[in-house]
Design goal:
The protein has a single domain (2-120), classed as Transcription Regulator spoIIAA, CATH 3.30.750. It is built from four helices and five strands, in the order E-E-H-E-H-E-H-E-H. Helices cover 43% and strands 27% of the residues. It has a five-stranded mixed β-sheet, sandwiched between helices. Strand 4 (76-83), helix 3 (86-95) and strand 5 form a beta-alpha-beta unit. Helix 1 (23-40) packs parallel to helix 2 (59-72). The protein is globular and about 35 Å long. The longest helix is centred in the first third of the chain and has 18 residues, at 23-40.
């Protein structure tokens, strides 16, 4: 399950995984985010907030995740990974080589700092 919140005024999408990610989670995220992108052209940022990365339900879910990133990363200015998970710290270093958005990791307790970083961009 993936909780999806879109703050249209600030131009920020907040994704909070609550379990292993499914194909349907990425379809739901796209159905909420894409109309905003069509209207405004881009988002200021995306915040992924999870204490521990839950993984994927299936290989198909991983593939859909990669397609979601491919289809959206050029239309985001910044991505904040707010997590206590080790993959979150690693993702900051790796993602910078594959996405055009600036990527930064924040400890799980620093959600407000991550949101401030996105808003100042």
């Amino acid at each position: 399950m993936l909780d999806i919140e879109l703050d249209r005024e600030a131009g920020i999408a907040i994704l909070q995984p609550k379990g292993a990610l499914s194909v349907e989670d990425f379809d739901a995220a796209a159905s909420i985010i894409d109309p905003c992108l069509e209207e405004h052209g881009e988002l200021r940022g995306l915040i992924i907030r999870t204490e521990q990365f839950p993984g994927w339900e299936s290989f198909g879910s991983l593939v859909r995740h990669m397609k979601f990133v491919r289809n959206h990363h050029r239309r985001l200015s910044r991505v904040a990974l707010v997590t206590g998970s080790e993959p979150g710290r690693l993702a900051e270093k790796i993602a910078g080589h594959f996405v055009s958005a600036a990527v930064r990791h924040y400890p799980f307790s620093e959600f407000d700092s991550a949101k401030s970083w996105i808003l100042e961009g």
